Amino acid sequence: MSATTGPYAALVAEHGLATSHRLVLDAVPADARVLDVGCATGYLAAELARRGCTVVGVEYDPVAAQQARAACREVVVGDLEDARTRAEVERAVAGAGGVDTIICADVLEHLRDPWTVLSWLRTVLDPGGRAVISVPNIAHWTARRALLRGRFDYADFGLFDRTHLRFFTRASAAELARRAGFAVREEHPAGAPLPLESRVPALARVRDRCVRRCPGLLALQVVLVLTVAQPRP
C-alpha cells in the first residue's frame, strides 16, 4: 500500500500541511470529539489526536480510509450523499458519545449537493457544537487571470481541480453555511505564496497583510467557523 493516496495526500506528504489546514486545526478545541468529513489518509486526524481529540472519520476512498484508521477511533467508508453512509456515520458518532466539532476541509466543493450534506451534518452535531469548513475561493487572482486570458484548464489539484463539482467565493461560501442552518462566527482567509516569494522571503509578510485586507482577491481558501443558527422567533 502506498504511503499516500490521491494528489492532496501526496502534497501534504511532500510539503506539509497548508495554511488552510492550520487554520482549520486552530479552530478545533483541544480534547474535542471530532467528525472529520473527507479525512483522506488521516493527516488532519493525526494532528487532532496529538491534541487530545477523538476523531471519527468519513472517507470515500477505501485505501485512504485504511491509512486514516491509524489516527481515528473509527472510519466510515462511503459517499455522504448516500443514505446508507449517513446511517453508518450516525451509528459511529453515537458510539463515540457524539461530536462537538465537525470539519469539512476541502470537501464540499467535491459534492453534487453540498447544501444538503452540510444541512444533514448539522443534525449530528452536539448542541453548542461547531463546524469548521474550508473551500477554495474561485475569485482568487490566479483564477481571475486565467479567465481574463480565456482559460479554464482543469488540473489534478488546485482551483481548477477536475473533481470539483461546485465553485465558491467568500459570499457564496457564507450563503452555503446559512442555507444549511448555520451562522458564520469567524472567517479566516488563507493565502498562497506570491510569485518570487521563494527568492524574496519578505514577500511572505507582505502577502499575509494583503490577504487580510483583500481576502476576496488574495485568499486561496476560505475557512469558516460555524455554529447552529438560532431559529427566528
Strand order of the largest sheet: 3-2-1-4-5-7-6
Strand content: 15-25%
Largest sheet: 7 strands, mixed
Uncertain spans, ≥5 residues at pLDDT below 50? none
CATH superfamily, by name, is Vaccinia Virus protein VP39
**What is the overall number of helices?**
10
What is the H/E string? Answer: HHEHEHEHEHEHHEHHE
Overview of this protein structure:
- The protein has 233 residues and is of the alpha/beta class.
- It has one domain (7-228): 3-Layer(aba) Sandwich (Rossmann fold), CATH 3.40.50.
- The protein has ten helices and seven strands.
- The protein has helices spanning 7-15, 19-26, 43-50, 62-68, 83-95, 114-123, 141-148, 170-179, 202-213, 215-218, and strands at 33-37, 54-59, 74-77, 99-105, 125-136, 182-190, 221-228.
- Strands 3-2-1-4-5-7-6 form a seven-stranded mixed β-sheet, sandwiched between helices.
- The protein is globular, with a radius of gyration of 17 Å.
- The chain starts with 6 loop residues before the first helix and ends in a 5-residue tail after the last strand.
- The mean pLDDT is 91.
Please describe the topology of this protein.
Elements: H1 7-15, H2 19-26, E1 33-37, H3 43-50, E2 54-59, H4 62-68, E3 74-77, H5 83-95, E4 99-105, H6 114-123, E5 125-136, H7 141-148, H8 170-179, E6 182-190, H9 202-213, H10 215-218, E7 221-228
Parallel strand pairs: 1-2, 1-4, 2-3, 4-5
Antiparallel strand pairs: 5-7, 6-7
